[in-house]
Amino acid sequence: MRLVLVDGSGFIFRAFHALPDMTRPDGVHVNAVFGFCNMLARLLKEHTGTHLAVVFDAGRHTFRNRLYDNYKAHRPEPPPELVPQFGLIREATRAFGLPAIELADWEADDLIAAYAKAATEAGGEAVIVSSDKDLMQLLRPGVTMLDPMKNVPIGLAEVEAKFGVPPEKVVEVQALIGDSVDNVPGVPGIGPKGAAALINEYGTLEKVLEAAPSMKPSKRRDALIEHADKARLSKQLVILRDDSPLPAPLDSFVVKPWDPAVLRDFLVQNNFKSLRHRLGLEGEPEEEAPPPVSAAEFGPYTAVATREALEAVCAQARTAGMIAISVQTDAPAALHGNLVGLGLATAPGQSTYLPLAHNLALDDTPQLKLADVISVLAPLLAAPGVLKIFHDAKQGLEALHRAGLENIAPIDDVMLISYAQDAGNFAHDAPTLARVHLNHTAKSVDEVTGSGRARLGFASAPLDKVTAYAAEAADLSLRLWQNLKPMLRVHKSLALYELVEKPLIPVLAEMEAYGVMVDRNDLSAMSAEFERRMAEIETDIHRLAGQTFNVGSPKQLGEILFETMQLPGGKKGKTGAWGTDSSVLETLAEQGVEIAQRVMDWRQLAKLKSTYADALIGQIDPNTGRVHTSFQMAATTTGRLSSTDPNLQNIPIRTQEGARIRKTFIAAPGHSLISADYSQIELRLLAHVANIPALKDSFAKGEDIHARTASEVFGVPMEGMDALTRRRAKAINFGIIYGISAFGLARQLGIAPGEARTYIDAYFKRYPEIRAYMEETKEQARTHGFVLTPFGRRCWVPRIKDKIPSLRAYAERQAINAPLQGGGADIIKHAMVKLPAALREAGLKTRLILQVHDELLFEAPDAEAETAAALAQKVMQNAAELSVPLVVETGIGKNWGDAH
Q1: 518-627: CATH superfamily
Q2: Its domain of life (predicted)?
Q3: Fold of 302-491
């Protein structure tokens, strides 16, 4: 028997630090996984034994922490981009057909020691694949080490060179010198050379300590006497326990060939094409393969310098029946950027750049005047027989419209084509789509403009670099369109794209351009009000702390909580500062620590003050006097819109502060705001998709759904029901949608987890259809990788099979909620597409100006506000046909708070 024992934890960190950051198409970091797979593949090729296992640490806390609670306490938390890779690496190990061994309460090094002992006792040998100095104590006849990076053995000479003693004496030396990385105390003042000299002279740690009183007076003698107990403790911490349990028998480690299908699936999932090729696992193309990618080269590209050249491009577009356009502006947000140039592509590899507003030197090729460009391009952009292809058409059209090119149709948007069939599967920016679908790395903006302080404006960047970037962007859009548009029909996403996503583009563009009015004076007053309340809370915090400090400083707050006040549960991060994020404060607040709750209150006000009260004033456009948010159409997993600059989706809904912020959004003089909000839309969708007769009946009768639920679950009559019982039913109703746990419900209601579990069990007993829906939906996600909304939108759930239980459980909650939240998003989008035309046909001047989740906000002349509200309610309630009625609640007011 030749047992190869791989130090899996060592492999992980070596791989992570050896490779630059890498991500899969879905954004998951995989550089450590890729490095680990490469190291494992090389090991299997060059150093295979008869038996092999990869050994991992099961967790940070082991029996050593009970011996010494500060053991490894100073080790920083692993980088956040590494944490999700731990589970993937274990999955990789199993994909290679190897056992992944770990055991709670024991370190990987202990298991390696135990298996090495078992192998030699069985008459075999063990090879430890690691360069970890802590494992060097195990070297002896029959047990060797191999440095996986240098690919060289580690023997007696290497151990003696490092420690000054043979392997069997290593623990004696380590006990004296300690280990600052693992927080093993040792004896202060004694280093490796001094420790080796003592052990070589006296033989063992115990004999050194016994001899210390008779040594010549010195600081070293005093330290040995004073810290003898620490040295003995240190030896217990550093010695590896070869008597640890064996999680699996040795005969289960017999090396077998990997299953090509299993390994290939893992490598495909993680986008490791080069490794697949190297291991001969390319395999057959998958079903539903997209059209073949064009073999045309990307570039070189040229710039358009004459009217004749531009007319030639337009002629090519008319012949091809299409043109892809990349719109380049001098600002990231199209609402505020000026048109600088256009990339124009008529076929793969046939792309050019049209400069319009570059700061060119006198000897550069002159650029066409905008008026001449418009005269040539406008007829083409309006031609019904020429399809105009964009990536993020909303942003591109906004910039073109401001430049004077307004009539542009028909269009397609490759970002939305991708989003309609792959929401949640990966990001939908152009570089990601190019990498996923074309296996091409797109040029970055930084390559054109530089970065940091030296960054140039786009109009001032070298024209050759801008040409290469912008022309490639148009070329990519055209190739992506050829690749992705046919797949809409295959994935049954064509109707969603053509009837919802694409028609929403002009609706949102008009909303963004019009904007919403805010009260500058009221914002200033609200800022002062929040500042006053923050000062009151700060005074309260200082009283509870017993001293003044900067509440906004996480470092000072951590010192107050965990050093001055000695509160439990503190942990230090990489910088050595105490962690004080929301999870830490919430845990303390749940334990009744008042200062933690007050700090959370202070932070909430500080965030609202900076994000809304102060920031909104600066975001008022001087030309319109309004705030213009930007709606992101392809950012969420479920189809919901999000907004930026400012983000209006995160205003608290049910808090006093959220209501106060809404009051600062006002109507123009002579106008009112109309709020139209879908009532309990996700609960209604739950009743519909899970086919729950009791809930459907209640919605049909217009009953109080929470009171009905309380009556059904708790067996109490609806009439005269107390508020607490209804509140508990409401918490369960909404919690179930988000996969709430007994612990979560208990925390929300302030009850014991056991009582909360009783409520949830009673709920599922009364509504078994919900449990069935949840299980069926999770199974659909596990089988296909996505779930469907009632309207056919695919919502991908990438981590549904994750080996890490917490990540898998989170993915399951996502899977359960996505058809409901996504269904709600589909319905309100249907309504938004219909509303502008309905308002125009009714002869109304009312305008749709905002969308926030299940709510739409309109600005209407006072005289037509009632009529417009009724029309909006009718259109929204008829936006979809469900087995339960859709209900929309409307309100009218001079500000959003009064209308909401």
Answers
A1: Taq DNA Polymerase; Chain T, domain 4 (1.20.1060.10)
A2: Bacteria
A3: Nucleotidyltransferase; domain 5 (3.30.420)
